[in-house]
Amino acid sequence: MTVPGGSDRKQMHLGVHPGRQTDFDSLAGLARTAEHGSFDFILLPGPDAFSMAAALAAVTDRLALVAAVDPASDEPFGVARRLATLDHLSAGRAGWHVTTAIDAGARDAEFIAVVRAFLDGWGSGAVRADESTGSPDPAARRRFRRGAGVSR
Q1: Comparing C-alpha atoms, which of 146, 138, 88 is closest to residue 114?
Q2: Is residue 49 in a domain?
Q3: What confidence tens digit (pLDDT) does each residue in 127-140 have?
Q4: How far apart are CA 102 and CA 99, in angstroms?
Q5: Is the residue at 145 inside a domain?
Q6: Which of helix, strand or coil describes residue 17?
């Protein structure tokens, strides 16, 4: 949705937050209603956010599924793995929202950088064209070293 604002036109995305709903049927109904109402995404909070998002992928077609992530209680590799799986299950509709503490800016920035490094762990062309083996090409893998960033 584009919102007129003088000469500056701003893009606005409509989303829904289910609150504390944990019953899947009511959450699925909310997601379907949001999708039919042309909302862009649903933000899922809590420790089961990725599981609920994966389940909602089966009952929605266009709605982006955004899981809230808390760097204080989650590990970067686990987040990257669950996000990649959700992205695959939802055909590219996965997203993540990092909930931050007021005093944790540097830690949260590092958390985001590490998750991104894990997500970008394989370069383009890393999977061989020979689909019978499906073997990734180890030479195309990016190396990640703590404190050193991502290197080739």
Answers
A1: 146
A2: yes
A3: 555 556 666 666 66
A4: 10
A5: no
A6: coil
Q: Is 114 helix (H, G, I), strand (E, B) or coil?
A: helix
Instruction: Give the chain's domain count.
Output: 1
**How far, in Å, CA of 39 to CA of 87, rounded?**
19
Q: Which amino acid is residue 2, in one-letter code?
A: T
Q: What global pTM score does this model have?
A: 0.73
In a domain, 110, yes or no: no
- Predicted pLDDT at 106: 87
- Tell whether the model's pLDDT for residue 92 goes beyond 50: yes
Q: What CATH number has the domain bearing residue 48?
A: 3.40.50
Q: What range defines the domain where residue 47 resides?
A: 2-103
Whether residue 80 is contained in a domain is answered as yes
Nearest alpha carbon to residue 97 among 64, 57, 121, 62: 64
